[in-house]
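hiii so my PI (J.) wants the whole complex modelled not just the main chain, which honestly fair. so below is everything: two entries, each one labled with what it is. i double checked the lines twice but i was tired so who knows lol
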Amino acid sequence: MEVTVNGERRTVAPGTTVGDVVRGLTRASGGVAAALNDDVVPRTAWETTPVAENDRVDVLTAVQGG
Amino acid sequence: MTTAHDTSEAAARAAAEGPADPLVIADRRFGSRLITGTGGAPSMQVLEEALQVSGTELTTVAMRRATPGSDGSVWDVLDRNGIAPLPNTAGCFTAADAVRTARLGREALGTDWVKLEVVADERTLLPDPVELLDAAERLVDEGFTVLPYTNDDPVLARRLEQVGCAAVMPLAAPIGSGLGIRNPHNLELIVGQADVPVIVDAGIGTASEAAQAMELGCDAVLLASAVTRAQEPVLMARAMRDAVRAGRAARLAGRIPVRRHAHASSPPADHP
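here's the output for the full assembly
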């Protein structure tokens, strides 16, 4: 199925969770947040939150700034 | 005479009371009045050393989309040095963007503190006052501790305080410009009316300007580029640490009035 991850269209397997998407992008131990269709998904819910066709997933990390 | 016993009692008392003359924002006390940013450093190693030397206890980070291989090293640097992270909303142009970014920062860093930044355009990076106030009000309602980067406008600063911001952070000059304090009169007006800490944020170029901000009565200084883009960032970090301390001490000491004419410091001469 097709989803949008950080603004890019991507094909993922059915049953993919937010946690799977995050791991595909970063191995950071902290400073990471994910949103599903603009709503923050708490870290504790990453593994139990599936992504559906055409969902938008954003994964952000803390970077140097400000 | 001071005995070893007295000294240890004094040390224990000092430890119990926390730092002398702490910076108090919301419910937290800081020994350092220098808040640093992390943008612009030539390497993570230089950044870490500069942060250590600066003595800072609160440091801003930005939130950006992860790219494959993102390793979260800024977070690691702050974590292992015991420096509290202050996520910002840099790069946001609307209140809605800023609120969304603040929520992600809260989740990522486990803090409800946010440096609220809502800028009007890329060229000036000046705060958009209408969007800023709107975002501040919404974030305060959501339980955030909001530290807004604002124009050096006393009226806007007052409005931000009225909606519940925990501090106001007027600019000295545009972000990264190093122009120093462009309108010291406005900063004094803001300091004079504020019941929350006033933190000069942006535009500081060198140590004397950080000291000047403190002498004007500001409670703290937030700077990034002045250190990270200096030719010797670690040395500048030390200079800024000392400047903020010196400026604070001078403010508390109370400077002499400025006179138009000389005022002898030696007794009048009585030689024949």
